[in-house]
Amino acid sequence: YVPRPPNAFMLFRADFVRQKHVPGSIETNHGSLSKIIGNCWRSLPLPEKAIWETKAKHAKAEHKIKYPDYKFRPVHTK
After folding, report:
1. Which of 5, 26, 56, 76 has the smallest number of Cβ neighbours within 10 A?
2. From CA 13, how far away is CA 44, in angstroms rounded?
3. What would you report as the CA-atom Rg of the chain, rounded to the nearest whole angstrom?
4. Coil, strand or helix: which one is 46?
5. Exposure on the CB side of residue 8, measured as CA atoms within 13 A
6. DSSP conformational letter for 23
7. Furthest-apart CA pair in the chain: how many Å?
8. pTM given for the model
9. Contact predicate 3/47, CB 8 Å
10. Residue 52, class by beta-carbon neighbours within 10 Å (0-12 exposed, 13-18 middle, 19+ buried)?
11. CA-CA distance, 78 to 65, in Å (whole number)?
12. Positive or negative torsion for Cα 24, 30, 36, 39
């Protein structure tokens, strides 16, 4: 299994959780935690979002080097 390269929001969310902006004792539900982080992401100024977009491009380039033959092929099960 090869994971997808992270996008800008995924990197932002991981960093947000790592820095414990919302304490685990307050918010343990990942769904509502994602809503909180999503609101923070939407209110982020464009220059700060650009930093995360750049990090995502670097992550994608590293992913391409590590997995050169990778192609996203979603599996739809019904």
Report:
1. 76
2. 12
3. 15
4. helix
5. 14
6. -
7. 42
8. 0.81
9. no
10. buried
11. 34
12. positive
